[in-house]
Every structure is written in C-alpha cells, then in structure tokens.
User: Which sequence fits this backbone?
C-alpha cells in the first residue's frame, strides 16, 4: 500500500522558498535544519532541499511541473492563492475531463496544478 506522498524539491535558498510555501500557500513548517525544510498542509507534504548550484526550475521548462493535487474546493483555494498574489500559470477552468483546475508557479519556478473532481450535478459555468 502506498501512503502519503512527499514531494522533494531542490530550491536555491530556503530563506526565499520557505516563506513562499508557508505564507502564500498556507503550509506548516514541520522541520528545518541542515539545508532541509519539511512542510505540509493537510495531506500535501514537501521536503525542500537547499541546492544553490542546481539548475533553476524556470530553466527546466515542462519538467518544473512536479505535482497535480486533488482538492475538495478548487474555487476557494484559487481565491485564497489569488488574494495572496500567487503567480498563476493557468486560470481556474472547468476541463472536459471532469476537473475544475488551476495552476501556480512557485517563487523558484516550480509549477503545481490543483484540481477538483466535478460531478454531473455540479455547476460547470466557468467556461461558458
């Protein structure tokens, strides 16, 4: 059985990255020491490793897209992140594959998608 996933990201500096995940995305810092910071929000967990010499995520193109997180209320989360001026790579959109989703870009250039499963009774008027 696979249990809670943890995503591991190389970041150029924890002093810039940690405040983004904590203050903009509402994550809790669980541990920070020795060039590592572990953060979580609900069942979403990150391990940030300080790697100042790593290739910048913005230079990775499509490979900077590292996670698709299923959420219970994509609209509310989009509004929360938008109010905190989080950079969006994709606006909130109802997709034909049955997901209401949006994408963000981290302060380091990592991209994350968030999506809510739509059911046939749910309002799908975002694209109208």
Assistant:
């Amino acid at each position: 059985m696979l249990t809670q996933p943890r995503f591991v990201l190389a970041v150029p500096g924890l002093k810039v990255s940690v405040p983004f995940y904590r203050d903009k995305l509402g994550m809790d810092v669980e541990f920070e020491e020795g060039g590592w910071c572990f953060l979580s929000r609900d069942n979403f967990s990150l391990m940030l490793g300080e790697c100042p010499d790593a290739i910048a995520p913005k230079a990775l193109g499509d490979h900077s897209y590292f996670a698709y997180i299923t959420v219970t209320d994509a609209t509310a989360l989009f509004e929360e992140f938008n109010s905190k001026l989080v950079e969006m790579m994709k606006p909130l959109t109802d997709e034909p594959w049955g997901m209401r989703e949006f994408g963000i870009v981290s302060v380091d250039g990592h991209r994350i998608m968030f999506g809510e499963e739509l059911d046939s009774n749910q309002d799908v008027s975002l694209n109208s």
Summary: The beta strands are 6-11, 28-33, 36-41, 44-50, 65-70, 87-94, 99-105, 111-117. The CA atoms of residues 41 and 121 lie 29 Å apart. The chain has a mean pLDDT of 91. Residues 14-24 form the longest helix (11 residues).
